[in-house]
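For the sake of transparency, this paper describes our internal protein records without simplification. Because each token names a local backbone shape, the row as a whole describes the fold. One such record is reproduced below, unchanged from the form in which we store it.
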Amino acid sequence: MVAPKTRDRILETSLNLFNQEGLAGVSTHRIAAELDMSTGNLHYHFRTKELIVTWLFRRFEERFAPCIDAHANVTALDDLWLSLHLTFEAIDEYRFIYRDIDYLLKEFPELEQRAQALTARNLVATKAMCAGLAEAGVIAASPEDVEMLALQIVFSTTCWFSFKRLTPPQKSPAYGASALAAYYTLTLLSPYVVGESKDYLNYLRAKYLR
């Protein structure tokens, strides 16, 4: 098996540290120490922490974009479940971005427009998803309901990990944070789902609590 390139090792280690310890608390010295390399060697590949964050944000965009695009093809609850599942997997993999978004945009303002564009794209796709579910008769929702439901779903998916930092940790968590986020996001649909789809929605929600 071919060993990962040094740049990839730096990015993967940085991602793990940012996710575990927070973007603000991890320096290039900390990253170099974790990799057992000199700071000079790290700076040869990435001159600044800003470059590392920018590269990771680019990777997140590439990882997240297909999840957003998949929203447009949702016409059934199974499609919705899969789309949300993939969305939370992507966000969880790069969770420092949304969890530390205030610090990220303050320290790296050049990423603000890209973050806004990604969110706008997510909103449009999620609105199309909700409209598709309404047209398919899965949910009973007016155009205003569709607008607000899309906003709530995007809010939940992007702000979940920030919110979790404000809640006391459970002593014996039965499920992970991303699974619980998916459960709550599916719950947002509950008042709108009609007919037999309602029982199936409850089944999908319950799967996340097992």
